[in-house]
Design brief:
Chain lengths: 127, 188
């Protein structure tokens, strides 16, 4: 590293002083009102955030898609034929009444889930 | 970040324009000066400052508070200035970091009252020289001495390595010092 002479040191001190005292220019008075006026014309973009539930749902979706693909790939012709037969039998014996317990159970679960979600969200919504 | 400022930022993030107006009022002096020193034109600087605040408002929902609000804001201003002056980015990138640089933070100050008039004259000369520096140097100097940002913050604002920032500031000061020595040699 080079050593500075006294003159250079004084010059450096003068430079430091000038840099620190370099004056700030006053901003135009119209700046803040102009910005505020422009803000009224633009809508605030809602915050994009990935929550844990988004990631969980994505993971679940990806796994299920992969599983369906794997099952489809590993289905033997015999299994496919059996599935086809089962489907045909189901079609022939189809009756809405047979599905009544399943539909009723699903509807009740959905209702309870909605109620729980409402109770969770409502206090936050009111602020 | 200050507690009060962080609260203002959070309120602004929730869409409260008054909170953002308070942030504008607080930062407008430095935002305008940063644009002015870089663009060297009052109208351009005002326009850039307005644009910077509008962009900040739009990008505010994505601001997570990991960096200082002012650092984040100055980065927007710097990017806007680089967009308006494509040469500025090239100038900044051209600042090499190959030089070994030592940055004395506390340079000795002149404390001789008798030399005050002479010092005032020198200061005025140096202020003119600062105005005549390349834009990239003026940008770094403004961030360092007017906004009082640390080297790390400046590096984050201008997206350059720390060494490049130090080199840029060192060269700017060396240029000013050389100009002063020449001026004094001519005047003596």
């Amino acid at each position: 590293m080079s050593t500075l002479t006294d003159r250079e040191r004084q010059a450096l001190a003068a430079v430091e002083d000038a840099l620190r005292t370099y004056p700030l220019a006053a901003p135009p008075r119209s700046l803040t009102p102009a910005v505020t006026a422009r803000l009224r014309t633009v809508a605030l973009v809602p915050r994009f955030r990935l929550e844990w539930i988004d990631l969980a749902i994505s993971l679940f979706g990806a796994i299920m898609t992969g599983l369906v693909f794997l099952l489809w790939q590993s289905t033997t012709p015999e299994m496919a034929a059996r599935l086809q037969i089962q489907f045909l039998i189901l079609q022939q014996q189809f009756s809405l009444l047979a599905f009544a317990p399943l539909l009723l159970g699903s509807a009740t679960t959905a209702l309870l889930a909605s109620l729980a979600a409402s109770l969770y969200v409502l206090p936050r919504w009111r602020g | 970040m200050e507690e009060a400022e962080w609260k203002l930022v959070q309120r602004a993030q929730a869409g409260e324009a008054e909170a953002f107006a308070a942030l504008v009022a607080k930062h407008q002096l430095f935002v305008y000066n940063l644009a002015l020193r870089t663009l060297s034109d009052e109208r351009e600087a005002e326009d850039a400052a307005q644009e910077a605040f509008v962009r900040a408002w739009l990008a505010l929902p994505n601001f997570r508070g990991k960096a200082q609000f002012r650092t984040w804001l100055y980065r927007i201003v710097t990017n806007l200035c680089c967009n308006r002056l494509p040469r500025l980015r090239r100038e900044l990138l051209a600042l090499s970091e190959t030089e070994a640089v030592s940055m004395p933070d506390d340079a000795p100050s002149s404390a001789n009252p008798a030399a005050e008039l002479e010092a005032e004259e020198r200061r005025a000369f140096l202020h003119r020289q600062i105005d005549a520096l390349p834009r990239s140097y003026r940008l770094l100097i403004t961030l360092r001495y007017q906004q009082e940002l640390s080297y790390e913050e400046i590096a984050a604002v201008v997206s350059l390595p720390l060494g490049t920032v130090k080199t840029g500031l060192h060269r700017a000061k060396a240029q000013l010092r050389a100009a002063l020595l020449k001026y004094e040699a001519g005047g003596a």
